[in-house]
Structure formats: structure tokens, C-alpha cells
Amino acid sequence: MTIDWKGVMPAVTTKFTDKDTLDLSMFTTNIEAQLSAGVHGIILGGTLGEASTLNNAEKSILVKTTVEIVKGKVPVIINIAEQSTKGAIEAAKKAEEDGANGLMMLPPMRYKAGDRETVVYFKEVAKNTDLPIMIYNNPVDYKIEVTLEMFEELIKLDNIQAVKESTRDISNITRIKNRFGDRLKILSGVDTLALESLLMGADGWVAGLVCAFPEETVAIYELQKAGRIKEAIAIYRWFLPLLELDINPKLVQNIKLAEVATGIGTENVRAPRLPLIGEERKNVLQIIENGLKTRPMLPDYKSLVG
Asked: Which residues pair with 9 in a beta bridge?
């Protein structure tokens, strides 16, 4: 499958049972809700997917299960976040074997690689897979920035096709467009900058709160794409207090609480993460409750898809 890097691509959470095993039943419920809302791809094993706590067998199960659920309607993409180049190549080959359609890739984990090391890391993986790749550029959380000069080298490989732009610098959208045109597709990776990024030319949105509110997220994308900016802004303004739950160290717990509130998830997280308690939990629940009370009536955004 060729990936058209655009639209809303949920970075889905991984569902766990009370016994800390994969909850494939609730996982399926959530993926089906995403598809029904009109998302354009599914991304597995990101930060929200608690990838650092998943073993290789679980990642494989998630890929195979998702491929079976989506039945080719949208691409299935899995994140690669490995400590070694060898491990990343092996993960890419396994993802391809399991039926994934593409990869999202973080720089090397733990070791703070230099620019040359980071470029070689990405290139070596790209040379060892036929899958299209989106580079995840998040220097705020992962301490390594993929600069424009580094992308000049990376795009020499045809299967490095997109960037998940999470630098928090909105002007970087314009820098990338000025430098690379449409050669490097841009997907916003920060929920609280998503609409701004789309209006500045980003092609899509790797979203977090979409896990709990898929229809509202896709509506914002489709409305802005159709030029109905005021309607998109109105939904976005309602959404912002919820979206801010994504730019928080407890984003997984926050978003899983929101999924519970909308009936498409559970609160179970994998240790060392623990469910929220006390004032922190109360505050998050209040934000979610306020959002549900004022949830907007959506226009028929699906009729805008063309």
C-alpha cells in the first residue's frame, strides 16, 4: 500500500486487561470507532501506545490485529523506538512481515546521538525495508532534533517520505515547505498546535485526543480542508482544554480517562505508569466532564470528503 501522508492519524493507546494482558476486545472497539469517524490511518506503538512497556510479541499481535480490523481501508503504521540500529532494522523487518504498511521512526533511544549518527541510523533502517517512513521529530521530549540539513540527506532515500512535526515551533511548517515543497509531507504531532499547523500547510495530524473524540478531530481536519475555517475554529476552541491533556507527562493516563468517559477505552495502564489519583485525577475528570457537557453538534463533515 502506498501511503498518502495526510489527514488524521490517531496515535492509538494500547488497551490492557485488569491482569495486564492485551485487551484486544476493547482495542477493536476503539479502532472501529476511529474508522467510523473517518480517520486516515492508524499509528501503533507510539508514546500513547506505551511502546516502551510492550514486548516484541505484543507489538506483533497489535499490528496483525489492526491489519485484520482495518481490512485495507487505511494504512497501519507502527512506531519504531529502539536503542540500536540493529534492533531498529529487525523491528522494521518484523513490522513488514506482520503486514504493517508504514513506519514512524524516532531517533535512537537512550543514547543522545549526534547529527551524523542520527542520519545514518535512519538511513540504515530505510535501506533495509520497503516500507514508507515518517520521521518523528520531537526534540522537546526525546532531546534529538532532526534539522532541515539532516532532512536534506534523509530524503535522498525514496521511502523516507514524511515528518511528524513536534518541535513546537509553528514556523517550522513554513521552513519545511519552503525547503522541500511536497517532497516531505508534514503531519502535526502536537494536539494544541494542530489546527494552526494545518492552516500553515501541514498535510495531516498525528492526534492524541482523537483516541477519545474521533469525530470531533476528523471534523476539524475536514472543515479546514474545505475552507470552512470558522466552523473548524469553533470546534477547536471547545476542544483545546481537552487537547492540553496531551501535552502533559501523564498524557497516557489522561487520555485513557477520556476514553473511559466516551465509552471506547479503559483506564488500565502498564506499570511503572499508575492510574491517576487525588487532586490530579479530580482535575482531569473535571476537564473531561466540562468537555462532555459542552460537546458541540457537528456538521455533516463526512460529506466534505472528496
From this structure: 206
List of domains in the chain: 7-304 (3.20.20.70)
Tens digit of pLDDT per residue, the chain (306 long)? 789 999 999 999 999 999 999 999 999 999 999 999 999 999 999 999 999 999 999 999 999 999 999 999 999 999 999 999 999 999 999 999 999 999 999 999 888 889 999 999 999 999 999 999 999 999 888 889 999 999 999 999 999 999 999 999 999 999 999 999 999 999 999 999 999 999 999 999 999 999 999 999 999 999 999 999 999 999 999 999 999 999 999 999 999 999 999 999 999 999 999 999 999 999 999 999 999 999 999 999 999 976
Instruction: Give the dihedral sign, CA 254/172/185/239.
Output: positive
Active site residue 142: no
Choosing from 6, 121, 136, 250, the catalytic residue is 136
- Residue 229: count other Cβ atoms within 10 Å of its Cβ: 14
Residue 225 annotated to the active site: no
